[in-house]
Amino acid sequence: MTPPPAPRIVGRDPLPTAVADVWPQGGEPETWLLSVSRYTAAMDAGAPGTILDAEERERASKFLRAEDRERYTAAHLGLRELLGAYLGMAPADVPFTREACPGCGGPHGRPAVSGTPLHFNMSHAGDLVLFAFAGSPVGVDVEKLQPASVVEQVAESLHPKERAELDALTAADRPAAFARCWTRKEAYLKGLGTGLSRDPAVNYVGTGLSAVPVGPWAMTDIPVDGAISGGSGYAAAMALLTSLPHA
């Protein structure tokens, strides 16, 4: 898979057009980036009440910290805005559902839109929200670079080869290498629909500059750091199912 271009920016770049041969059914996936602070400042104050559904509004209201509530609200409004543009419907009318969990079969797998083969995923951290849209299952993750103490603790959950790669680096190089590895891993697990209920130590995705595919899943690092003013110190990745697994 050809590395994707830098994500388009929600609120700056033109929205996608709802034409059958435009949204990424069989071509390269498309990624979008949203700044929570800029999006929140520009949005209509009544948008959450008229566009989000009852479940989304209830979940937003349960966040104790204003910044968490704003991030959740901006992420879900942005997702509805983009999906509505791709699918040619009002953002409030996008019919969300959940695919079956690949682990237990319960209705808490990948998010989906009823009646369309357009696949999507989103992730948020700090001031950034990353979205991906594709014609096959896709997962994304964006993370803020973590201090050495966090890297040392969380690295214990990685694949043994990934831990060895981090140990071989200088202390100054580990945070960026860990972030590359962790975002690839989370993107893959989100693409599968399992999330972290699947042991992140099982599959090797690598810590180096070149992402390592996992079976039919292609891993790609997404260039988000510095893409938006004030949005520095981030790493992001996408996992895309490129073919059906062999029987």
UniProtKB/TrEMBL annotation:
Gene Ontology cellular component list: cytosol
Pfam families in the record: AASDHPPT_N (PF22624), ACPS (PF01648)
GO molecular function annotations of the record: holo-[acyl-carrier-protein] synthase activity; magnesium ion binding
Keyword Protein transport attributed: no
Ranges for domain 4'-phosphopantetheinyl transferase: 137-200
Gene3D superfamilies: 4'-phosphopantetheinyl transferase domain
Residues in 4'-phosphopantetheinyl transferase N-terminal domain copies: 50-132
Highest taxon of the lineage: Bacteria
UniProt entry tagged with the keyword Endoplasmic reticulum: no
Transmembrane segments: none
Keyword set, alphabetical order: Transferase
Gene Ontology annotations of biological process type: lysine biosynthetic process via aminoadipic acid
SUPFAM superfamilies xrefs: 4'-phosphopantetheinyl transferase
UniProt similarity note: Belongs to the P-Pant transferase superfamily. Gsp/Sfp/HetI/AcpT family.
PANTHER family, per the entry: L-AMINOADIPATE-SEMIALDEHYDE DEHYDROGENASE-PHOSPHOPANTETHEINYL TRANSFERASE, PHOSPHOPANTETHEINE TRANSFERASE
Protein name stated in the entry: Uncharacterized protein
